[in-house]
Amino acid sequence: MKILVTGTAGFIGYHLAKRLLERGDEVVGIDNINDYYDVRVKYGRLKETGIDANDETPYGEPIESSRYEKYRFVKLNLEDREGIEKLFEREKFDKVCNLAAQAGVRYSLTNPHAYVDSNMVGFVNLLEACRHHEVNHLVYASSSSVYGLNETMPFSVHDNVDHPISLYAASKKSNELMAHTYSHLYNLPTTGLRFFTVYGPWGRPDMALFLFTKAILEDRPIDVFNYGNMSRDFTYIDDIVEGVVRVIDNPPKGNPEWSGKNPDPGSSKAPYKIYNIGNNQPVKLIDFIEAIEKAIGKTAKKNMLPIQPGDVPATYADVTDLVQDLGYKPATPIQEGIEKFVKWYRDFYHV
After folding, report:
1. Contact 258, 269 (CB under 8 A)
2. What is the average per-residue pLDDT within 282-304?
């Protein structure tokens, strides 16, 4: 298949592109390589897939991979409607996986417009392009953040998610709503994936695992929010990618039992579906820190702080639909995943 993967300089996008290429798909990757976090990590990911990119990389021009015969990369903004249209016109994609987004809950409190531009304007550009160029499946990243004030655990895709507590979460919820509209109006198969705290090698520098590892190695204290009384359904990157690939290969056909009298938020009569992809085993923040300490071989100094605005105390994924429909459940133990990350971190930063 010929697949567009957006966000291939990003954490999940890099790993997904690599996986698809290794199984023989043709992949075009796009990313705007913004400076939300250390661009050295972004360029490092691209380099791993044979893409020689830097700050002078020409905008909108395809770069051939020196490692994968079927891979090309284009520096492009999702909100560039004309650029996206030209890309789709030229490439004729079979499927699209949208992993590009302005990420981060806390950043959305101070930079709201970045989320509207990338996550909403950019997403509708993709929807329009998929509609007009006969793409047969749009898969897109949503987030566990959409569960917001929900307290029923584990979080189910069949729960109502109308109470987000950050603009980031609201932008992801809006993606699900826009996707459903296009599935209903234009019969475009769309699948939204609610990822739960993804971690692993080449992970994002703004995430807890990266920040904690860096601070502990540099003998600096770490900030432990909500006094450590947080739990997260940490999900290893390889498990996420396996779930995404299975979803890409299985476009939704619509739920014939769906009823407007008792509407199920996770499916539709239209070819629309939502899945959680999480480890289904929440880990307490203190236990997570302990696993990092064990992998590094050093005890962390801890600043115990109150919960931050926009944060939720716990996440926990119900993956019943993923198991039933696709026969898959993430399973990498937290200690194993953290050890792999710490090894990557030491190699990448030579520490």
Report:
1. yes
2. 95
Residue 18 · residue 238 · CB < 8 Å: no
Clarify whether 14 is annotated catalytic. Answer: no
Rounded CA-CA distance 94/2 in Å is 5
Rounded to whole angstroms, the Cα distance separating 130 from 63 reads 23
Which of 241, 318, 328 lies closest to 278, judged by CA?
318
Calculated CA dihedral for residues 118, 124, 130, 136, nearest 10 degrees: 90
Q: Report how far residue 310's alpha carbon sits from residue 166's, in angstroms, rounded to the nearest whole number.
A: 5
Token output for 250? 């299985």
pTM of the model: 0.95
Distance, CA of 64 to CA of 71 (rounded, Å):
6
Q: Residue 64: phi, psi to the nearest 5? A: -80, 140
Q: Which residues of 106-122 are buried (b: 16+ CB within 10 A; e: fewer)?
A: ebbeeebebbbebbbeb
CA distance 246 to 225: 35
pLDDT single digits (tens) 52-70? 999 899 999 999 999 999 9
> What is the separation of C-alpha 292 from the centre of its chain, rounded to a whole number of angstroms?
22
Contact yes or no for 236/279 (Cβ under 8 A):
yes
Query: What Rg do the C-alpha atoms of the chain give, in angstroms?
Result: 20
The catalytically annotated residue of 14, 68, 140, 168 is: 168
Omega into 154 within 30° of 0, i.e. cis?
A: yes
Residues 213, 342 contacting (CB under 8 angstroms) = yes
Per-residue tokens: 23: 């199984």
